[in-house]
Amino acid sequence: MSLVEVTDPAGEERSRGRASRSERMAEMVRELGETGRLRVGELARRFGVSEATLRRDLTALEEQRLLTRTYGGALAQGVAYELPVRYREGRSRDAKRAIARQAARRLPAGPHVIALTGGTTTGELAKELPDRADLTVVTNALNTAMEIVLRPRVKLVVVGGVSRPRSYELVGPWAEQVLASINIGTAFIGVDGIDAAGGITTHDENEARTNRAMLGRAQRVVVIADGSKLGQRTLARIGDITEVDELITDSSADAGSVAAIRAGGVRVTVVDVPAHGENSRSIA
Description:
By secondary structure, the protein is α/β, with parallel strands linked by helices. The protein contains 11 helices and 16 strands.
């Protein structure tokens, strides 16, 4: 059973202003990665939902092989967690939307080809793109393709490949072969980590190879990442920091990480995310 097929019973959390199910599950998986254990009773009290609801959540997460159920709770499976996209969408949503709006403003006038990797921030950017007949979007992300295909004026190019359920991306040699034949003006790259020394990284080595193929075909590379990604290094390197022209992030980013990336020659745009609207400041 897929998690996208499971709904909140009666929507009790939403009606009472509680965290959504995806937000609740994301928090549970994050805690499991830190502590290695979850207890149903403690979770029910924290989230203000019934133990029966929490048990259904844990069962659904077990079916995705994110944990192992035990009597009264769950245990980690001893792996480094990459949350599926549907659980990451609720994290830092305001920041990701503000970053996406700022990135959309970077599009030049006239015919232009852009590329979007998978990820929640690039997914937000897909929603912000203008409906322009002179715009071509190249993507290896199935969810992004579904967003763009609803805009008939925008030309959509979807690369082939093998799907990754956690990121909705198509990856592998087939994707890389298609990308090798395409000229890209601006590539907007989503990452799991960006660090001045470690470069731009992601959790999966196949995804990293495909994203690197996209980066290599672009005249300009823009990384869009919320502040939690700065200073992080994950398993697979997409590219060096010197291959990035610009980073667009939000004001939660660590100032030291921003300064180090800036020192590496990357233009950094920091988007403020106040309660109403957003502004930005560019750090050359």
